[in-house]
Amino acid sequence: EAQVTQNPRYLITVTGKKLTVTCSQNMNHEYMSWYRQDPGLGLRQIYYSMNVEVTDKGDVPEGYKVSRKEKRNFPLILESPSPNQTSLYFCASSSQHASNQPQHFGDGTRLSIL
Amino acid sequence: GQQVMQIPQYQHVQEGEDFTTYCNSSTTLSNIQWYKQRPGGHPVFLIQLVKSGEVKKQKRLTFQFGEAKKNSSLHITATQTTDVGTYFCADLYGQNFVFGPGTRLSVLP
After folding, report:
1. Phi, psi for residue B89 in degrees, rounded to 5
2. CB contact under 8 A, A48 and B95
3. I need a labelling partner for A108 at 20 to 30 A (CA). Which of A37, A72, B95, B99 fits?
4. Where does the pLDDT of residue B80 fall: very low under 50, low under 70, confident under 90, or very high at 90 and above?
5. Full DSSP string of chain A
6. B5 to chain A, minimum CA–CA distance in Å?
7. CB A10: neighbour CB atoms within 10 A?
């Protein structure tokens, strides 16, 4: 089954403790992306990747890092999480370039930073 | 940077009534994608509009792209309880997607 898998689904942690949210897709998609969703603000793009070893900043990249060493994986790293990064995070992928292709979203990761 | 706006923010309708959400921008929109997110779920792609004046239909859903490519709309005819959720439009700005804040639809049985 074609899917985007995120882990963990839920995480409560403390300020400053490094964490990684994994994202994996089995559709051989080139384009992958991370979003955060906050009430009233919709989805805001954090980082995206157009292919292996190619990553770029979205609208809200501060405090986040990503890597794309393999085509299927696109982890999101919070080196020193802060409470303002408490949010619902979605990973998404699409084939080739983002244009003209639908994005497939994972089920989301709810992060709470205390 | 690019800003995409949606109105209304919330809409409550009685089952069977029609519903419309509007997506607009002060600058020209590139490719508009529409997504639906059920409560507790993830966004699911509905459709993409590319051409000026384009109209596409999916059963009870009608999607339009404005002639000047500065707005788009999603219209649902005779809403059902299964239509409940938040509807987002997204524009491809350069290399990244910019989503509108969404319209949350409630359907009262």
Report:
1. -105, 155
2. yes
3. B95
4. very high
5. ---EEEE-SEEEE-TT--EEEEEEESS--SEEEEEEEETTTEEEEEEEEEETTEEEE-S--TT-EE--SSSSB--EEESS--GGG-EEEEEEEESSSSTTS--EE---EEEEE-
6. 10
7. 9
- For residues A40 and A55, give the distance between their C-alpha atoms in angstroms, rounded to a whole number: 27
Q: By the 8 A CB rule, do B91 and A43 touch?
A: no
> What pLDDT is recorded for position A88?
98
On chain B, the residues whose CB falls within 8 A of the CB of A106 are 42
Partner residue opposite B100 with nearest CB, options A35, A42, A107:
A42
Residues of chain B in Cβ contact (below 8 Å) with chain A:
1, 6, 9, 30-31, 33, 35, 41-45, 48, 50, 88, 90, 92, 95-102
How far apart CA B97 and CA B104 sit, in angstroms, is 20
Query: Across-strand partners of B10?
Result: B104
Residue A99: per-residue pLDDT:
62
- Substitution target in B97, B98, B104 with the highest count of A β-carbons within 10 Å is B97
Six token digits for residue A102: 């639908």
Which residues are bridge partners to A4 per DSSP?
A25
